[in-house]
Write a structure and sequence with these properties.
The protein is α/β, with parallel strands linked by helices. Helices cover 34% and strands 19% of the residues. The chain is built from ten helices and eleven strands. The radius of gyration is 18 Å and the shape is globular.
Length: 258
């Protein structure tokens, strides 16, 4: 059995997780890391010959807080674990940061780390990528995800470099402030309280109250709500009311709903 744990806001990591599951050559089960974090105890276990796969994005050159918390809290019992980071610009020190955590776990026999390029979805800084860039990066993601599946099938092992001082600084700064940024989301008059933002939030940081979305400090600043709002009624930074959002072209809101 291969168990695949993913963290995904706009579908990039979910799509790669599904592609690896499709190609891995053994029965696979997919688990949402956001949902796993709601459990009092997290047991990540694969039987003899089994594997555990983690698929997650890089945030500000490091680990999303949810992925860090998951890795720290989980009890791992698996002969093999492969971790893949999806990234739009550079993966930074995300894999190195995860490696430091996983090396403290006694229940993992063999480790592998890999990178999967995908579409940059942090529109607040980078803006909308445009269809040409989306097509290019999706093709790159498919090739890399197929290679990731082969790595899992072959039970490859390697190590991840951990000395990325600049990345660690940027990631640490982001992590300290990420859960304050929800205060800067703005809701426009076009909002019709459809609840999409609440349904797709991977950490239950949005709730529709009195006909308006309300954000709390669980927010990971993943930008899923900004990108997937069907009314384009959530604004943050460069993402203005009515401006286009992004989600993986083969993943829709129903796939991401929790």
């Amino acid at each position: 059995m291969t168990k695949i744990y993913y963290f995904s806001a706009t579908g990039n990591s979910l799509w790669s997780a599904k592609k690896i599951a499709e190609l891995a050559g053994s029965p696979c089960e997919l688990y949402d890391i956001g949902k796993e974090l709601q459990k009092d105890e997290i047991l990540v276990e694969a039987g003899d010959g089994g594997a555990v796969v983690l698929v997650f994005p890089a945030y500000a050159f490091g680990l999303p807080l949810a992925v860090r918390n998951f890795a720290q809290r989980a009890v791992f019992k698996t002969p093999y674990l492969a971790a893949f980071v999806t990234f739009g610009s550079i993966p930074g020190g995300a894999l190195g940061a995860l490696s430091k955590i996983l090396k403290t776990k006694e229940g993992i026999a063999k480790l592998y780390f890999g990178r999967i390029p995908s579409v940059e979805n942090y529109l607040a800084i980078f803006g909308h990528p445009g269809q040409g860039k989306i097509d290019q990066r999706v093709a790159m993601q498919q090739t890399a995800s197929e290679e990731a599946a082969r790595a899992v099938i072959e039970r490859r092992a390697n190590s991840a470099g951990s000395f990325y001082p600049l990345c660690a600084f940027v990631s640490g700064l982001f992590s300290k402030n990420a859960r304050r940024l929800h205060k800067h989301y703005k809701i426009g008059d076009a909002c019709n309280a459809c609840g999409t933002c609440e349904k797709i939030c991977p950490v239950s940081a949005v709730a529709v109250k009195d006909g308006r979305p309300a954000f709390n400090d669980k927010c990971e600043h993943c930008q899923g709500c900004v990108n997937l709002c069907p009314q384009r009624a959530i604004q943050f930074g460069r993402v203005k009311f009515g401006s286009p959002g992004y989600h993986h072209p083969q993943i829709d809101t129903a796939d991401l709903a929790r």
